[in-house]
Amino acid sequence: MRAVELHSSIGPAETASVRPPASEKLVRGVAISEPRINDRIRVPEVRLVGPGGEQVGVVKVEVALRLAQEADLDLVEVAPNSKPPVVKIMDYGKFKYEAAQKAKEARRNQANTVLKEVRFRLKIDSHDYETKRKRAENFLKAGDKVKAMILFRGREQSRPEMGVRLLQRFAEDVAELGIVENKPTIDGRNMTMIIAPVKNKSEAKAEQNAARAEAKAVRQGRADDGDTADAAGE
């Protein structure tokens, strides 16, 4: 196996001290780092995450490479600074394509996103509040951000906590459609809060689960580092 030969040609000391930089490519004059993949991952051991996000544990890099090849997938380094580095088995070509599509979609959404404003009085009646809530929900459904603003009058400026409570209530009432992007802040005689539309629930959940799996692997790696350091100190 080519990956094994490359690994075996590097001594243990050299492996531990020499970490070749991730490859870079220029996109519009800006260097973009890409993760190491497959036989470019030149370390003795790695913390392996399976294709479904399952935690395999710390294994020799040759084992991780073999498992990736048997699954007809790639081995991708996702947390190079952990000790040992965290790697994941995945279809790297598909991953890059989907990442590019998401970035493109995000840029398009950002360009098309409009900031809609909904104004409240601190002493607002229930009917007026419901009207403004429904208007905000329609904005969020259309993919627009909502700027909720409270207009303070007279002595109301001395009671900012009441404004915070009103905006928090509003955020909770529209939570299924939007998330707080900017928390309540004072802007002159006004208090504002920005709410952004949420992603598709299934997409957001899938991304969240993947991120949690990788974060868990990174945390486990750091915990193991701490245990090793404690043992060395003893």
UniProtKB/TrEMBL annotation:
Keywords from the UniProt entry: Cytoplasm, Initiation factor, Protein biosynthesis
Region (Disordered): 201-234
Subcellular localization, as worded in the UniProt entry: Cytoplasm
Domain Translation initiation factor 3 N-terminal: 37-106
Source domain of life: Bacteria
A single BP term in Gene Ontology: ribosome disassembly
Composition bias type Basic and acidic residues, residue spans: 213-225
GO MF terms held by the record: ribosome binding; translation initiation factor activity
Stretches assigned to the Translation initiation factor 3 C-terminal domain: 114-197
Gene3D superfamilies named in the record: Translation initiation factor 3 (IF-3), C-terminal domain, Translation initiation factor 3 (IF-3), N-terminal domain
GO CC terms: cytosol; membrane
Main location: cytoplasm
Subunit comment: Monomer.
Role noted for this protein: IF-3 binds to the 30S ribosomal subunit and shifts the equilibrium between 70S ribosomes and their 50S and 30S subunits in favor of the free subunits, thus enhancing the availability of 30S subunits on which protein synthesis initiation begins.
Family according to the record: Belongs to the IF-3 family.
NCBIfam families for the chain: infC
Protein name, UniProt field: Translation initiation factor IF-3
Species assigned in the record: Microcella putealis
Annotated gene: infC
